[in-house]
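Suppose a colleague, Dr. K., hands you the sequence of a protein chain of 215 amino acids and asks what its three-dimensional shape might be. Before reaching for any lab equipment, you can write down a predicted structure in token form. Begin with the sequence itself:
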Amino acid sequence: MYDTILFDLDGTLTDPGVGITGGVAYALRKLGRPVPAREALYRYIGPPLLASFRRYAGLDEAAARQALALYREYFVPKGMFENEVYPGIPGLLAALKGAGRQVVLATSKPEPFARQILEHFDLARYFDFVAGSTLEETRTEKREVIAWALEKTHADAARAVMVGDRDYDVKGAQANGIPCIGVLFGYGTRQELVDAGAAATAEDAAALRALLLAR
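The predicted structure, expressed as tokens, is then:
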């Protein structure tokens, strides 16, 4: 059914909750802003951080860019690795490669950070291409990242699928004419994914494997 599988990173392949929320808290603290409880910072996971700092912390553009720079002070040396791979993901990726599928990363995280994370967790060997945003915060929207990935891999959109954990992933896929399978072990809810129009949902890596390798 699918020849090319595009994966989100945060909340789909790895659980970055500690590192991302730690970086956001660090940035807000440095700016003298109130720091909510960790659970309230989970909404920063997934969407582009500049937009999230504006939306959730009420920062203007200049302050949001300052917050992003402070976030990276924490994230690059430490927060990036306060992260863990979800159970079953390495086996799933190995099975997809063994079945001859093209496996692609499509994340709003800057490409250099995404590559470091994949390499750190020994996942890079499963990926044919890594698509993300730039360090200058361009190509941050998921629809832009997916379009870039499809173009660079010469994928047939009719036989491609996106896998992600938030409505942001579903809508980005829809903008490019491909379906999205939502995973329920990340940071989005079933209702969020269904309401956005996910083609299917998967409770765990085993269920996701069955969907991706179905014929």
